[in-house]
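New to this. Help decode both lines:
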Amino acid sequence: MALVTFMTPDGTSLTRRYALPPTTRLRVDVNEIVPELGVAIIVQSDRPLAAERALYFTSTIPTTAENMETLTDTDALPQVIPALVGTISTGADEAAYTWYFPDGTTVDTNQYLLLSNPSRGQARVTVEFLLSDGSRPTETLLMPANSRFTLPVHELHADEPALAMIVRSTQPIVAERSLFPDAGPGAGGGSTMLGVPSE
């Protein structure tokens, strides 16, 4: 039996139970459970299991000579071709007070810091940015218990060729970083990674 808790930005959460027979897998469509909201997830089970998060979205790729062969009507050649892209990552084994992110960039890239607070108390989170000029500005935010938050790093520090982060919290949290190309024709793909945890 798997107990799955969905946490939203305002601290509201809901739980679903799923039966998993031995040697089986289960896919949960989160959009059907928490539509149009950012969400963080806790998976608990009475038996060892593996859990991962897959994120899919529609992007576009530019029209080129190579992919023209896939089109039947070249007189109505589109400027871009729709493409399904996404990222996949495993969950964190446990929450931590400190998370390190050694690399990142906001040059032609949208970078997001994704935070979840699975604790029962409010978390005061401080994000320290290590920028390419040697400066170390910070951002501080308060997260309700059982909530999640997305910090758009590219809006705070645009056009940074190299950017690292240290995330510190008064409660154990989970921190993840996502990188996506700037929106527009030719944009596609992305990457997501957990930070390196530390007590």
Remarks:
- The first helix runs from residue 30 to 33.
- The first strand starts at residue 2 and ends at 7.
- The chain has two domains: 2-52, 94-198.
